[in-house]
Amino acid sequence: MPTRTAETELGNMTEQIAFTAFDEAAFEAAVRAAQKSLSEGGIPIGAALARGSEVIASGHNERVQHGDPIAHGEMAALRAAGRQKSYRDTTLYTTLAPCAMCTGTIIQFKIPRVVVGEARTFAGEFELLRSRGVEVLVLDDQRCEDMMLSFQQDHPALWAEDIAE
Ligand SMILES: [Zn+2]
User: Fold this and answer.
1) Residues in a beta bridge with 136
2) CA of 6 to the centre of ligand 1 (A)
3) 100-118 pLDDT tens trace
4) Claim: this prediction has a pTM higher than 0.85
5) Which of 98, 22, 31, 101 has the alpha carbon at shortest distance from 59?
6) What's the pLDDT score for residue 5?
7) Region at 37 (left for phi over 0; alpha for psi -120 to 50; beta for the rest)
8) 91, exposed or middle or buried, with CB in 10 Å at 0-12, 13-18, 19+?
């Protein structure tokens, strides 16, 4: 698997961060969850929670599948992970930049690191995350961007509903 790099802003510096092979594998779990949701007629956003070298759980947006407006990909992955004594040694992987709701949950649970597939089709709340000390890494994954672009074009009303536009 090729090693990718992504830019992360640290203060005024832009630093190239190398992703580990495990990061790639955990991120792939989020991508697979998004693809599964798409195959079910749902919104193609997936996420995974990992600790050390273990993917604890993954999940995807369930707005369509379960009629659950709170079940964004990140929320579904956290729900699937069940009770955790601490999140301080975890990383949350998500195919799309986290919205305000998911950002609030990341801050509330003190998840220190978030790896994001892409933020071009939805900007999310990076400023808020970083202001609370969360490390945010963006992969600029072309598959994630293509998946969201075609979904947003094919289902504009559903997309607008999901982000409350
Ligand atoms: Zn969200």
Assistant:
1) 114
2) 22
3) 999 999 999 999 999 999 9
4) yes
5) 31
6) 61
7) alpha
8) buried
